[in-house]
């Protein structure tokens, strides 16, 4: 009997020893596993890339770099600007859409994404499925300008001139499909008049021809046209905002001119690849809104005659959906050739 008890006691002791040894081995193996197994690594723990669909140095690039620097300070990681100009913004957007949704790739975007989507071109990404909104950054109304020596003083006078000279009033743009093109097409559609569109490869030649009187009008941003207006080389006749701008309070709006449907804001925003973890999307939106509340950010946007537009990802998503639908309808109804 005592022999049996000793055997049972030995077997039990052996199992306890083996069990303890197994626990020690399991703990050692667990210690060797990467931190990503079982728990998400803290975010961010390496630099973040912000893809920008513009070359360095322009107004939108400056805003992107300002936002990137401010976000970097709050997140504790460098935000690297990746300028990928080309294909009307499609190249940069595709780069972001194909990136991992891990919070380490962001897309700086503008109104141009909505107009590109509305153009009907075959794109290498699906805006609704491949990308997700983080938040709007800011917005600015546009200006319609005429030569300084033009007899036209108001938008109504420009429209009356176009009615008197069907297709004889020419406006220039920075290219087919640009905001300076389809924005002016929206104005003419609302006014029910015909202008002759003259596209250029960029704005410099258009400005030269406008100042010489070869063109009768151009639509553009404060950043592009403001200094020429201030210098007396061009005359601004209207802004496309719903309300007068603090940057040009003397200028009437398209609403005051009787064309409320011609209201246009040029906007900037941040997006990410789709299917990013909800907590990362919320963190980015919270940090972006905090950055937009900083005086330095407001001052940077003010240099582009823009104001901050903090809000939720859903707010920005609704804005983009509205813009895509709006420009799609215009392009279809006005039969605008986007090639």
Describe what you observe in this structure.
By secondary structure, the protein is an alpha/beta fold. It folds into 2 domains: 48-140 and 265-333, D-Maltodextrin-Binding Protein, domain 2, CATH 3.40.190; 141-262, Periplasmic binding protein-like II (D-Maltodextrin-Binding Protein, domain 2), CATH 3.40.190.10. It contains 12 helices and 10 strands. It has helices at 2-32, 59-75, 90-97, 111-118, 127-130, 155-164, 179-191, 204-212, 222-230, 278-292, 295-302, 313-333; strands at 48-52, 79-83, 105-110, 131-147, 170-173, 196-199, 217-221, 234-239, 265-273, 307-308. Strands 1, 2, 3, 4, 5, 6, 7, 8, 9 and 10 form a 10-stranded mixed beta sheet that branches. β1 (48-52), α2 and β2 form a beta-alpha-beta unit. The longest helix is centred in the first third of the chain and has 31 residues, at 2-32. It is globular, with a radius of gyration of 28 Å. 39% of the residues are buried.
């Amino acid at each position: 009997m005592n022999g049996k008890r000793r055997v049972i006691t030995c077997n039990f002791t052996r199992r306890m020893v083996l069990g303890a040894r197994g626990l020690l081995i399991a703990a050692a193996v667990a210690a060797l596993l990467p931190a990503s197994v079982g728990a998400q690594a803290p975010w961010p723990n390496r630099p973040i890339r912000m893809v920008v669909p513009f070359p360095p140095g322009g107004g939108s690039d400056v805003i992107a770099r300002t936002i990137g620097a401010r976000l970097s300070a709050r997140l504790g990681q460098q935000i690297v600007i990746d300028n990928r100009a080309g294909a009307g913004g499609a190249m940069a957007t595709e780069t972001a859409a194909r990136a991992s949704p891990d919070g380490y790739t962001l897309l700086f975007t503008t109104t141009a994404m909505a107009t590109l989507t509305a153009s009907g071109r075959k794109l290498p990404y699906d805006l609704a499925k491949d990308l997700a909104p983080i938040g709007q950054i800011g917005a600015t109304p546009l200006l319609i300008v005429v030569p300084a020596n033009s007899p036209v003083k108001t938008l109504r006078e420009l429209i009356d001139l176009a009615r008197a000279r069907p297709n004889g009033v020419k406006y220039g743009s920075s290219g087919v499909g640009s905001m300076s093109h389809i924005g002016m097409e929206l104005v003419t559609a609302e006014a029910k008049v015909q202008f002759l569109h003259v596209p250029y490869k960029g704005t410099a030649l258009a400005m030269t021809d406008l100042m010489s009187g070869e063109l009768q009008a151009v639509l553009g941003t404060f950043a592009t046209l403001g200094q020429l207006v201030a210098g007396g080389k061009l005359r601004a006749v209207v802004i496309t905002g719903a309300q007068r701008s603090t940057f040009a309070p003397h200028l009437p709006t398209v609403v005051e001119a009787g064309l409320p449907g011609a209201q246009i804001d040029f906007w900037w925003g941040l997006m990410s690849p789709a299917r990013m973890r909800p907590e990362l999307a919320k963190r980015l939106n919270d940090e972006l809104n905090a950055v937009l509340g900083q005086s330095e950010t407001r001052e940077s946007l003010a240099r582009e005659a823009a104001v901050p537009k903090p809000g939720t990802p859903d707010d920005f998503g609704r804005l983009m959906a509205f813009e895509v639908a709006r420009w799609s309808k215009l392009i279809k109804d006005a039969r605008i050739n986007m090639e």
